[in-house]
């Protein structure tokens, strides 16, 4: 038996026009092109304060290092004068009462010798990781001029084998750094393609039973579930509209696979693509004026865009490179489309402009696919399925 392990990976986009965000400190002296940042833990009075401040400092350092915009180092408060970096963040903790603590953090510009910000927050000890991500968000916003994403959650399919070697699939949610995994379904039915609603309050996914496909909405607050709609045939690739009022879905029935729009209020569907071609993986542009999708209209799997402001709504092909293109998804910024590319048996994650120009391949690996954008539109997560060579 072969064991397959599916990993969720992240890639940062180092693209020139992404780095034009406003900077509020002088970073031109940075030799590596990123913002130099030292994360320091201040002296603490108790063992609990010391442990949690160290944990929080590690979270901050990991968050900012992984986003690809910071050159992060650790340092001690006593070394302040010797720090050779663009910026410094210091973290200190003090116990307030019971399990409550107060976190204070300060951000310094070492070139201008001025304090950029100072903030404090009271929290429960059990929430130390969340607080670390919060501080990372604040620092990212202050230095880059863009809202941070470090408190972002990721939903995915967790798959494992039971005692009878049968595949068990569950909807799972975790923090963007891989921590705090929670399962939302128990594995008693086949589920696929979970997607967060735009407001983050729910997750929609597909469930299959008795020859039908069900679109299910999971309420993340009270954990209740409701069936949005049921279809004959196979439903796949659900994707919310940016305003959260509709879903784009791929529907396979009677030898045809087309894209439908489902109004979440009226539950009415509208067919967007027609014909014998296999059209799937739809994704709206942020303004909902366009839709990108994958189709074999031309004979091979390529990417197409439909302009909803054009009366003809005729699909326009945007991918012209060698190989096949799949799973496109529009950036929250609207400036790029991420995709999976399969060429000569190899898988790639790439991006291109909405008109198909400036294609760029970001990652290569064994069965890497299903890219998804983080809210900042700068980073992409995707899955990779590994098949260990020594599996039996």
TrEMBL record:
Keywords, sorted A to Z: Cell cycle, Cell division, Periplasm, Signal
InterPro entries cross-referenced by the UniProt entry: 6-blade_b-propeller_TolB-like (IPR011042), Tol-Pal_TolB (IPR014167), TolB_N (IPR007195), WD40 (IPR011659)
GO CC aspect terms: periplasmic space
UniProt GO BP: cell division; protein import
Domain (TolB N-terminal): residue spans on this chain: 24-116
Main location: periplasm
Gene3D superfamilies tied to this protein: TolB, C-terminal domain (2.120.10.30), TolB, N-terminal domain (3.40.50.10070)
Localisation per UniProt entry: Periplasm
Source domain of life: Bacteria
Family membership noted in the UniProt record: Belongs to the TolB family.
Protein name: Tol-Pal system protein TolB
Originating gene: tolB
């Amino acid at each position: 038996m072969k064991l397959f392990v599916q990993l969720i990976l992240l890639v940062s986009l180092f693209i020139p026009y992404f780095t034009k965000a406003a900077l509020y400190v002088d970073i031109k002296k940075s030799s590596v092109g990123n913002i130099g940042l030292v994360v320091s833990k201040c002296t603490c009075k108790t063992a609990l304060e010391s442990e949690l401040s160290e944990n929080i400092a590690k979270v901050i350092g990991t968050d900012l290092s992984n986003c690809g915009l910071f050159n992060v180092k650790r340092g001690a408060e006593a070394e302040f004068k010797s720090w050779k970096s663009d910026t410094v963040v210091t973290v200190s903790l003090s116990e307030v009462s019971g399990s409550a603590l107060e976190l204070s953090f300060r951000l310094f510009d070492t070139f201008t010798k001025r304090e950029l910000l100072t903030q404090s927050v009271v929290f429960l000890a059990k929430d130390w990781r969340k607080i670390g991500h919060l501080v990372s968000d604040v620092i990212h916003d202050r230095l880059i001029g863009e809202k941070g994403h470090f408190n972002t959650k990721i939903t995915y399919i967790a798959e494992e084998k039971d005692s009878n070697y049968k595949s068990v699939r569950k909807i799972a949610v975790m923090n963007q750094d891989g921590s705090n995994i929670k399962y939302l379904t128990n594995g008693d039915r086949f589920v696929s393609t979970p997607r967060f609603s735009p407001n983050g309050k729910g997750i929609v996914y597909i469930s299959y039973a008795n020859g039908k496909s069900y679109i299910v909405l999971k309420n993340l607050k009270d954990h209740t579930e409701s069936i949005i709609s049921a279809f004959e045939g196979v439903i796949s690739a659900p994707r919310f509209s940016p305003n959260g009022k509709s879903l784009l879905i791929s529907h396979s029935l009677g030898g045809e696979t087309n894209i439908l729009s489902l109004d979440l209020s009226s539950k009415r569907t509208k067919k967007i693509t027609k014909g014998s071609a296999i059209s799937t993986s739809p994704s709206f542009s942020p303004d909902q004026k366009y839709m990108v999708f994958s189709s074999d209209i031309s004979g091979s799997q390529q990417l197409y865009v439909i302009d909803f402001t054009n009366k003809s709504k005729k699909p326009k092909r945007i991918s012209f490179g060698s190989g096949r293109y799949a799973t496109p998804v529009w950036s929250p910024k609207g400036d790029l489309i991420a995709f999976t590319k399969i060429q000569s048996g190899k898988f790639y994650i790439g991006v291109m402009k909405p008109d198909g120009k400036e294609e760029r391949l970001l990652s290569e690996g064994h069965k890497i696919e299903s890219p998804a954008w983080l809210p900042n539109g700068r980073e992409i997560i995707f899955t990779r399925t590994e098949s260990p060579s020594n599996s039996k």
